[in-house]
Amino acid sequence: MFLLSCNNADPILFEKGVSLELANHRAESIKNIVYSLQLTIPPDEESAILGEEIISLEISDISHPLILDFKVPVAYLKDVSVNGKEIEYSFEDEHIIIDEEFLILGANIIAISFRVGETSLNRNEEFLYTLFVPDRARTAFPCFDQPNLKARYNLTLKIPKDWQALANGSLARTESNGDLKTLIFEETLPLSTYLFDFVVGDFKVVEQEIGGRKMTMLHRETDSIKVTRNLEAIFELHKTSIEWLEEYTGIEYPFQKFAFALIPSFQYGGMEHPGAITYKAASLFLDESATQNQLLGRASLIAHETAHMWFGDLVTMDWFSDVWMKEVFANFMAAKIVNPSFPEINHDLRFLLAHYPGAYAVDRSSGTHPIQQPLANLKDAGTLYGSIIYQKAPIVMRKLERRIGKDMMRQGLREYLSEFAYGNASWDDLIGILDSVSEEKVTNWSNQWVKSKGMPSIFPYFRTRKDSSIREFSLHQRDFNDGDNIWSQQLSVMLETEDTINYYDLDFSNEMVEIDEAKGLRKASFLICNTKGYGYGYFRLGPLTRERLLNSMYDFEDPVLRGVGWMGLWEEFLRQRIESGAMLKAILSNLESEPDLLIQQYLLGRLQNLYWKFLRTEQRLEQANIIEDVLWHQIEILSDIKLKSAYLKTYRSIALTDEAVNILHQLWNKELVVEGIKLSENDYTQLAYELALKQWPGYEQVLDEQLLSIENVDRKARMVFVRPALSGSQDIRDAFFESLKDVANREHESWVQQAIGFLHHPLRASQSEKYITPTLEMLEEIQQTGDIFFPKRVLDNTFWGHQSEEAVNNVRQFLYRNNHYPENLKNKILQASDLTFRAAEMLNREDE
Ligand SMILES: [Zn+2]
């Protein structure tokens, strides 16, 4: 860290990245920023891209130096001049520092010539595209890289004359000069740096006028039938989304033009660059055989990115600690836009199973955290992402709308968007507006759900009279995450007695709520406190309810209720209130009768968890052939191909008896064919891996043959990479693990994740325990060098196979020795090892 000090002012603390302190100082002292950027992009990807930049801005505090962000090698920065004079500057810790003596109060012009940094340019042979979220603009050009310093951009691109380009602003004019052409784009409206983008290269351009609006699409697809098949839907879906959002927000599409580029192997589904959205091509160009779910996925993605034009782009969070907000709003709007067009899908059930299991997995662990998390430096923004943002925040947003009502929500959002248009706002700004428009006060509610961590544990309480009729029925909540938080929520309760079924809609906002209407009813026999699936928390089930759900789930016709029931049973199982044998039996006996595909898939997931994590070796061997038989029977009788292949994958994972492992081998060498299922190359590779993990005699030869049969160079390289992790030799596996300590060997993160999963396969858990502590020791470095999701995935793949007390002790001792470990990483360790802790405790208790 450096202290920049001068005589008459407090120093500004700066360090690598963009610290909150630096960001706050700049937000207060500079404004009206305009970046004029001229970039020359040569055709070959090896040559440098040169840039000339003029930044005009107003400065209201010249008692401090001006600090620009630019994260590139020193040699990339050429000249800097301020107000027409070339100056001496310093370039330290990813910042250009311009001494205050060169600045004047009010308008200043800074001119910089530089070589463009390439970290986030995604340069390929025939094209490149920028992706600057969350703080990568500073890796390309000098700027003030923080979301609340919005700026206007004048972009000029010199590119090869046959190439196309797309940027946020409209193209003003083109000039040609020899092999290059110069594209001059119109000045943009105010944008945050992470939303500035351009796409350049050999693209095909499709323009359409639809609904009175011109739209442009860039793509590189060579299969013209595929393009034609999808074209109309892609444009139509964008048009519908824009019109819906204009109507909902009361604000016309807020940017100058509408265009999008379809990029092969784009990192995400899409990114909401205003006027120049980028998509992963495969998410929009669907195959002829696309399922309803894929069609829904595409429509949702388009609606999501379009919704961002208002939520995130027009009004942007102040700081990335509120990044969850824009994502939640985009999803929330997308669901409203798209779901009505897919009436055959049960959206409540889909929402439930897509969000609750992931949210509970973190919220029940001691590594959980609030939705809104502090962020001291933008360079760490990646550590904020996880299930709490992606899965819990949408649940909470849905609760908010139910609480204040759809009309109030819409009115509040309209005010929020118009008040902060082209500017920035925080979650608290929105809550302030909602508080003022709605009768419901939501500040408290926001403190409970957004600013506090964890979830309520909800317990029913009954008192009965002598004739066993109900004297008192109440619900109680407690905070088991060492806090005393109370959560307000609406619950839909179903109470069955010997002769009646009763429904109550409750507003549960205190420690306890009593349901007076239940007084005098006959003895209670069944109680579900969350029938509609809007409630959130751990709902303790009474013994009669538990038995009924375990034994007669098929009684309940409503799939949402069954979804809630299964999740409720699983939570009880994890808290040792249901024996593993009973849980296993319930899952197995419902596989055949469960009519809903999503619930079937949920059950297959739980079956694998239970089998590998919560059964000890002997129990697993005892149960293996029973489970294998049930799964194989389903594979034989099912007609739905997608479900059938989900069963086949589960069978592949679970197969343990000689007979079943032989079946895997027969599937691999095509002696055995499952009717209706065409195995892919990837399936055959996975079968070969399972044969290795299960030590099928001759597995080395299987792997050799499999490797020979793979033609694609990338997939071949992947298999060569992961193979040592499958080896029967401990020495080879040890050496492989050792090699991962070198960052150069972790370049392909998905390969590394898979290999780590093999090392820690439950069948090898006792031999891989010794990798746990060194992995935890590497974690900080992994976070600094890897993608945002990598640390958690490494941890998940490490812990999945472990259930022993020794494994748990490794974690305990590591955390004890490193009690100043970064909070976010410590939390990830606790999240990833939660089931290992629970399994060790459960198996220990069974021993007693
Ligand atoms: Zn998004």
Key traits:
single chain; 848 residues; alpha+beta; eight-stranded mixed beta sheet; 30 strands; globular; binds zinc ion
Describe what this molecule looks like in 3D.
- This protein has 28 helices and 30 strands.
- The two termini are 54 Å apart.
- A hairpin with a 2-residue loop joins strand 8 (90-92) and strand 9 (95-98).
- By secondary structure, the protein is of the alpha+beta class.
- The strands form eight sheets. Strands 7-6-10-4-3-12-15-14 form an eight-stranded mixed β-sheet. It has a five-stranded mixed β-sheet with strand order 17-18-19-21-20. A four-stranded mixed β-sheet has the order 28-25-24-30, with no helix packed on it.
- Helix 17 runs antiparallel to helix 18 (681-693) and helix 25 runs parallel beside helix 27 (823-832).
- Residues 272, 304, 308, 327, 330 line the site of zinc ion.
Low-confidence stretches: none
Shape: globular
Q: Tell me about the biggest sheet?
A: 8 strands, mixed
Structural class by sheet pairing and helices:
alpha+beta
Q: Name the helicity range.
A: 40-55%
Ends: how far apart? 54 Å
- If you average the pLDDT, what whole number results? 94
Quick take:
With 848 residues, the chain is of the alpha+beta class. It is 43% helix and 20% strand. Helix 5 packs across helix 7 (387-404), helix 7 crosses helix 8 (406-419) and helix 20 packs parallel to helix 22 (749-759).
